[in-house]
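Reopening closed ticket. The problem is back. First fold of the pair:
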Amino acid sequence: MGIRNTALRYGTIAMALHWLIAAFVIANISLGLYMGDLPRSDPNKFTIIQIHKSIGLTVLVFSVIIVLWRLWNPPPALPKGTSAPMRLAAHATHFLLYFLIVAIPLTGYLLVSASPLGNSTPYFFLFDWPNLPFFSGMTREALHPIQHLFGRTHSILAWTAIVLVPLHILAALYHQFALRDNLLARIVPGMRVRGDA
């Protein structure tokens, strides 16, 4: 299996980024739902929030890389015989997923950066990840509506992912095991794709 994508399957870079981002997104959605129900007094809440932020920043970096990689190294075409409506749904879903994996962590980063506290993120408690500089010097009163906007947007996008990610997984399983068109096998390391050398 090569580094680059081929006509039949994704390469190792696309596979690695896909599965790393998927794992981080699912972990962060789970953490986000969990910490949302924690009282402010919970002694673990600060640590959980910092891990959530660190994972989000990691997803943001990996997402920019995978978008650039996809532009430079296009993915395999959809299987022959895929109907026009299914092609449209696949392209729309992939576009929305790519948008979400960039927009969700970016709005989170903007939310943290617009905090009146001005605290940087202790990235996995290894070093301080700086905030975006756009909001420095703004008053608490000016920051409050901005932070609320980014917080609301971050939440809406996250809930969109909560709906879309399971649909994406179910569609991949349907293609692989009902339609038997090797769609899932193309992105899973070690799975054989018909026509592979």
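Second fold of the pair, where the issue appears:
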Amino acid sequence: MTVLPPYDHSLTDRLPLLRRRARMLQATRAFFDGRGYMEVETPYVVPVPGEEVHLRCFRTTLEHPDGTHETRFLHTSPEFAMKRLVAGLHCPIFQLARVWRNGERSATHHPEFTMLEWYRTEADLSSLMDETEALLHALLPPSLRVGETLLDLTQPFERLTMHEAFLRYVGADVLQTEGDAQALAQQAQADLREGENWEDLFFRLLLERIEPHIGRERPTFLTHWPSEQAALARRDPHDPRVALRFELYAGGVELANAFEELTDSHEQRRRFEADRQRRLAYTPDQDWAVDEAFLQALPHMPPTSGIALGFDRLVMLATGAPRIEDVLWLS
């Protein structure tokens, strides 16, 4: 008689969380269907995984029937492919996509996770914030207990520019000091670490002094980032020092990242080349060609705003789950 090993009952224990996840998936599709969006699917195995400087991707090999081979990657986002669809379709689209980012593992990070990404044509950043707020109202209860804090979704979400956030929580003018690490450190009364450049210090101050204070009692849109921190976003025509980008924070977690999309292919190519040089300086093995199909599509895009939201993190917020693995079917 075969004796089976003890079964891991964690799946059964997590069933209420997973049922909530399934209901939220259904509600997400209903939300976008009701607003005239088309659900799309894009390839997961791609020749160009993205151009983010600090993300590491999974690499694989495509074998052709004739015996030749090509390098492929698991995408870190469906962004490039979805923008190509917007350029061709000229209509709002959304996708619940599996994405992969190597080397990421924490309570809120997993190397494979679900990204809710959507693009709204003829929309500016403000209207996309309105829509994102409506989505959270559709998926979450009016208030949530997050640790010792009550997150209130009945009040309008806070809209805070990066310039305002640095003045309020850091005591520094992030735009006036851009590119000058010593000046930013002096205003912030921070010690500049060995080898730390302005970008490194910017993100350290954001992580240590701003993020702990925003999105706690009500969600916060952190908007208008320094232009060099938004490689795929349009610059603000009223202040070219900033890009039309926001991130959404709720319950102490960064949930989403959004842009008014850049459609100038020449400017986009220049930014890609700059990002590529920075990426190779950090991780020389993260090398691939520029996505020419994406660049060719950009001039055909209508004015569009797009957003990527970590769906698993949203489920964590809804359920109170402390770890991302708690809301994944298997990990």
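Update: turned out to be a display glitch only; the data is intact. The radius of gyration is 21 Å. Residues 48 and 291 are 6 Å apart (CA to CA). Please close again.
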